Amino acid sequence: QTGYSQSTPIQASLDSGLTYRATTANPFPGGLLQPQGPAGGLATNLGQGLTPYYRNMKQGYAQRWSFGLQHVLPGQFLVEGSYVANRGTRLDVSRQLNATPAEYLSRSPLRDQTTIDFLSRQFANPFRGTNPIYGANITRANLLRPFPHFGGIAVEEPIGYSWYHSLQMRAERRFAQGFTFQMAYTWSKLMEAIEFLNEADTVPYESLSSFDRPHRITASGIWEVPVGKGRKFGGGMHRAADFFIGGWQIGAIVAVQSGAPLGFGNAIFIGDIRNIPLAAGDRDVDRWFNINAGFNRNANQQLASNYRQFPLRFGHIRGDNQNSWDFSIVKNFPIYESFKAQFRADAYNAWNMTNFNNPNTAPTNTAFGRITGTAGDARNWQLSLKVMF
């Protein structure tokens, strides 16, 4: 807790680099700051960040509801359609209590150098001398804070919320005659308000969740090859032949889902947002979206000291879809009544499909729009032998 743990910041200079008091040989010329417990009183963590505990913290909760219809078709097939929803309430949100007031921030969609110079101007620090941590100067932006004698003051408050709606379709063939199959499709949307777009905002920003995946298809099945003792074909074959030919089983699990929504931070964009995504045939790892749709990529012209209005994420601009195809082959060996063996071969990502990470979305980065990593593993075989007795 604040006061009972203490970090000592390295302060190389107290006058903006005119002179230096710390060196690599002696980075802490004033010694290490010691935790004071409650002895510091209201002076605890002066000039540093605080994380106070919210006294009126309440337990978050989720409300879930669904409505569905099921119908059994001939051939042991079951189909189901459901509406499934969820509402999260009192979710924790980190609020900054010591932000520069919004009325001093620029509303310009372009870099406002006048405002930047106004807020970054240095003044003699009025707190100098009251605590060794204070330097000689302080910026106007920090002086305008509600509590300028402290750094950031972040508190977790139960003011966040989320909501989820989905249509879920499912088909299942119950296990019969050595075969079972399941397939499900989900069409959904997940929204949330668990962060602030600007530190000085009074309410969390409603946005598409980073976990939103509008489309997901999954399928799984097991097929017992109908050859061997006790099965449709070869039920009377010799035990030696059944040892090699019978008892085979094939399984598969498939999952395909949409990619994650992308955001570009506090970016300058002058253009039509609809021009950012590229058609599937035009995308590749070196150019996942249209980097020339209207982004300002000049590092010297980026926004600062501004009131952000650019959204957190975009539903129509997404990362790579994720695919997973896993297969298994199982062979059961009936040695004795109470002694059996099983050989199993599993192929994970059997088609060796590459699932890509999200592309770089920082406009000033030289890798902007490029994918530089993969998600998941390449094809992986796993062989096992199990004895049951």
Can you give a write-up of this model?
- With 389 residues, this protein is mainly beta.
- The protein has 3 helices and 16 strands.
- The protein has helices spanning 113-120, 140-143, 239-245, and strands spanning 61-73, 77-96, 122-124, 137-139, 154-176, 179-193, 207-208, 215-224, 248-257, 261-262, 314-318, 322-336, 339-348, 355-356, 374-375, 380-388.
- The strands form 4 sheets. Strands 1, 2, 5, 6, 7, 8, 9, 12, 13 and 16 form a 10-stranded antiparallel sheet that branches.
- A hairpin with a 2-residue loop joins strand 12 and strand 13.
- The two termini are 56 Å apart.
- 10% of the residues are buried.
- The mean pLDDT is 92.
Task: Indicate the topology.
Layout: E1 61-73, E2 77-96, H1 113-120, E3 122-124, E4 137-139, H2 140-143, E5 154-176, E6 179-193, E7 207-208, E8 215-224, H3 239-245, E9 248-257, E10 261-262, E11 314-318, E12 322-336, E13 339-348, E14 355-356, E15 374-375, E16 380-388
Antiparallel strand pairs: 1-2, 2-5, 3-4, 5-6, 6-7, 6-8, 8-9, 9-12, 10-11, 12-13, 13-16, 14-15
Q: What is the string of helix and strand elements? A: EEHEEHEEEEHEEEEEEEE
Mean pLDDT rating:
92
Biggest beta sheet attributes: 10 strands, antiparallel
**In percent, how helical is the residue content?**
under 10%
Strand content: 35-45%
Radius of gyration: 31 Å
Return the structural class. Answer: mainly beta
Low-confidence runs: none
The overall strand count is 16
- Number of helical stretches of at least 4 residues: 3
Q: Separation of termini?
A: 56 Å
Shape category: elongated
